[in-house]
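I have a small job for you when you get a moment. Can you supply me with one protein entry, sequence and fold together? It will help me judge whether the discrete encoding reads sensibly. Write everything out right here, beneath this request:
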Amino acid sequence: MRMRPRVGRRLVRTAAVGGAAYMVGSHAATKSAEQQQQEADQNAQIADLQQQQAAMGQAQPAPPQYVAPQYAPAPPAEPAPAAASAPSDAAVPTRDPLEALKQLGELKAAGVLTDEEFAAKKAELLKQI
């Protein structure tokens, strides 16, 4: 006796695959139709808004342009007394030259200062010590 393959299983499998493919295609077609309808609705809304804006633009004048206010020049300031213009030693905060040298070295190491800038500032700070 020879065994015949079962035809029913193959037929069911083929039907299941075909049915799934049909459902996917049907869903895609429905979704595509919905998207097209939504786009058409949006285009109609945009066209309506453009018509409204065009109608309003003809009826209303353009808004005024901004013009910067003109200010009168300030009167010249009175010269300050000579004693007040010279800074006193107590008013100027002194900075520790050694701390400034450390910060200067960090700036040079970070690449912020060139060798020439570093040497010039270092010479100024060393004069203060």
